[in-house]
Specification:
alpha/beta; single chain; four-stranded mixed β-sheet; 25% helix; 2,3-Dihydroxybiphenyl 1,2-Dioxygenase, domain 1
C-alpha cells in the first residue's frame, strides 16, 4: 500500500502560543517553522520518541468555518485529536504539574485508559494508554 499518514493538522487560535505549549509542555520537537505570508507560518512538530517523519501541523484557525468547527468540538467536550502514551496516570500527573487543565481524569474505557485536557489553543486533546 502506498498511502501513509505523514502529516495531520490541528487548528490553533495562536501559533506562537501553540508552538510553546506543544514543545515546552507536551514535549514535542519543532520540525518546520516557515513563513507563508502575512502573520501565518507553516509550523509542524513531531514526537521525539515516535516516528520522526510523522508531523503535526499547528494550523491557524483564521478561517471562520474552521473556528466554528473548533469551537463546536470544544463545547461538546470532543477531543480534536488523541496521542498515545505509555502511562496515562504518569502523564496526567506530569501535565497537571505544568498547570494543564483536564476535563476528564484518567478513566478506563474498555481496552484503553484515557484522559482529556485543554491545550490552551482552543482544543481538547485526549491521551490514551492501551491496557494489556
Amino acid at each position: 500500500m502506498s498511502l501513509k499518514i505523514k502529516l495531520n493538522s490541528i487548528m490553533v487560535d495562536n501559533q506562537d502560543k501553540a508552538l510553546k505549549f506543544y514543545t515546552e509542555v507536551l514535549g514535542f520537537a519543532k520540525c518546520r517553522d516557515i513563513p507563508v505570508g502575512g502573520e501565518f507560518r507553516w509550523i509542524t512538530v513531531y514526537a521525539p520518541e515516535g516516528h520522526p517523519d510523522v508531523e503535526l501541523a499547528l494550523e491557524p484557525n483564521a478561517n471562520p468555518v474552521g473556528k466554528t468547527f473548533q469551537d463546536g468540538l470544544f463545547q461538546q467536550n470532543i477531543p480534536a485529536t488523541a496521542f498515545e502514551v505509555d502511562d496515562v496516570e504518569a502523564e496526567f500527573k506530569r501535565l497537571k504539574g505544568h498547570g494543564v487543565v483536564f476535563t476528564m481524569e484518567p478513566t478506563e474505557m474498555g481496552p484503553v485508559k484515557i484522559a482529556i485536557f485543554a491545550d490552551t489553543c482552543g482544543n481538547l486533546i485526549q491521551i490514551y494508554q492501551e491496557l494489556k
